[in-house]
Amino acid sequence: MGKSKKVVIVESPKKAREIQKILGKDFSVKATIGHFKDLPEKEMGVDLKNFKPKFVIKSKNHKKMLSEIKKLAENAEVYIATDPDREGYAIGYFMYQELKKKAKGIKRAEFHEITPKHIKEVIKKAPEFEKTNFGLFDAFLGRRVGDRIVGYILSPIASKEIGGRFSVGRVQSPAVRLVVDREREIQAFKPTPYYVLSVLLEKSDIPFTAFYEKQRIEDKALAEKIYKEIKEETEATVVEIQKKQIKQSPKPPFTTSVLQQTANAQLRFSPEKTMLLAQDLFENGLITYHRTDSVRISDEAVKKIRAFIKEHFGQEYLPQKAKKYSSKNTQADAHEAIRITNFVPIEKQKQLVQEKGLTEDHFKLLRLIYQRTVASQMKEAVYERTTAIFDIKGYRFKTTGSVITFDGYKRLYNIEDKEDTQKIPPLQKGEKLQKLDQKLEEKWTKPPSRYTEGSLVRKLEELGIGRPSTYATIMKTIKDRGYVTKEGNALKPTQAAYELIDYLDKKYSWVVDYDFTKKMEDFLDSVEQKKKKWKEFVKQIYEKTQSSSKAVVSKKMLNYALDLAEKHGKDISHILDNPEELKKFIDQHKETKPTEKQIAYAKSLAEKTGIELTEEVLQDKEKIKRWINRAKREAMKSYKLSEKQKAVLIKNGREDLIDKPEKALKWLSSYFRRRKK
Fold it and tell me: Domain boundary at 375, 408, 425, which?
């Protein structure tokens, strides 16, 4: 293929194919395949004297992709069109650095929807990359380097001092703390009884319930006294009637966080599943960009939604004026909310999903976005709410009933906040109604409920912890690392979560301090706006990691050292509380030969995989460990999970691991270990 005059760079191959179809043969659209540069996997990758990061090309695949793009970019007009958020901008910035000496010119294109009109407009108006906000890249650097420092410095210390494998994260650890704190609230909760007294009344063959005016009676004796006194009474007198018209407004369109919460509550999708499905819907041109804090919809889209409502629901569902929604954070409004891009009925939306080769789950999420988008521009729902007060033997009872007089937006989006719709007959003040029955129930106060992934996302957002692009990753991380398990849709902390949070609370309380984490997020926002420097952010975090009390000796380390001392006939009582000396002693006396069990395991793996197992490896504990890991990876390639293993994964919401046997087995082994505890 000859060199194209114009090159467009995006992140995903799927998106590249869609945009290529739109832009045609004058353009070459190439994908970076996600982040192609990152900090190295096996080392800190940050110089702690000046916080300079060392970014490396992630894989051979990425190296190959980069050299192809470099060739194409020579003397070409390049459009860097990676995602319109911090992470996307960072990928774009790395690419800009790679290409700026080769390309004729580099521009920044931000696609908020993959539709022909939008893409062509964006390409036409794309600014020079040099004129874009480099603060986005600085904010990315602050987050990435700061998080690396926290993880690389504190995780090994926590693992050593608690005993076991623990990971500490600037945002993941406060999320784990929320789950642990909630569980402790539930455990400490002492239920108390209360009493509910109700009567069944009837008029014109319409029975309905009225409750004693104090809905919760704390005093059992009082509840029983009223119950006895009204028992023989056969009538109730209407003493007061109030009628009120209630208008209920539609909710604004989806932000990332609210989409994750709603999909979790309504469809039982985990946040990461929601984001994967939304990514596909975006890349296939069915919705706008799915990482956003904004509730704003563009004027052009509002016009199309209003025309759609008029045509498909009728003029009576269309408010006189378009509804305007704005975000608390004015910066967020530079973007749009998550909305549909094709203003067509739901049957047609389904057809589009099928044409793109997407799944039923994609359609379920698209239907939710479609309903919320259109409903946000529809008229309010109108209710007539009647409240009536009755007198029975001098005691007041109350009932409420609502009748919907106009369904408004609820004709389309009636998923949440169900109105109480008890049917009440027409009533007149002073009239007497028949009392059919009465009931006294003992109830108990309930503890707070456990977080679901959706409600945990809401709480993180409320506390200002994390950002739209990070919520799904946080949820995935705390599940993958074995800090929470799912019981139904609820999140329950594991023993490891309690151990980690108690340890951090004592030694590094700032890591799990909600307020500090929020301040750090705000600091990154200021970096993005070029009001603060990213290195200052990293410096503050680094200094915090250094300002802890003296290292302590873990139980595991102590027991191991005592075993070795007994074996070698050494007295180590004078160094038992000195971690440095204990480590030296362990290094000098630890066994370097593999155990019988290791040798037998290695031999069985050698038979299965055909990988050579030398005498040298069989003599050295470290070498045999490395050999076993390599052979296990090889064996994994042909490993098939059993139906029982798959069932456990599905029950715990980890179906994403079914095609990744190595990760699945690791997760299953930690799951069964936790169950034993």
Answer: 375
**Chain segment 276-312, per-residue pLDDT in tens:** 999 999 999 999 999 998 999 999 999 999 999 999 9
Tell me the C-alpha distance between 606 and 600, whole Å.
10
Residue in this structure with the two tokens 């069932």, named with its chain if needed:
647
Asked if 479 contacts 486 with a C-beta cutoff of 8 angstroms, the reply is yes
Domain boundary among 84, 105, 132: 132
Provide the 3-class DSSP secondary structure of residue 613. Answer: coil
pLDDT digits (tens, 9 = 90+) for 184-202: 999 999 999 999 999 999 9
Residues with Cβ within 8 Å of residue 26, at least 6 apart in sequence: 4, 5, 6
Residues 283 and 165 in one domain: no
* Domain match, 269 and 349 both: yes
Query: Quick check: is 157 in a domain?
Result: yes
Active-site residue among 194, 212, 289, 383? 289
- Compute the average pLDDT of residues 465-480: 90
Q: Are 67 and 73 in contact (CB under 8 A)?
A: no
Contact 328, 294 (CB under 8 A): no
The question of whether 289 is a catalytic residue gets the answer: yes
Q: Whole domain around residue 56: which residue ranges?
A: 6-132
In tens, the pLDDT along 243-253 reads 999 999 999 99
Evaluate whether 197 touches 217 at the Cβ level (below 8 Å).
yes
Residue 566 lies inside a defined structural domain of this protein: no
C-alpha neighbours within 13 Å on the C-beta side of residue 550:
5
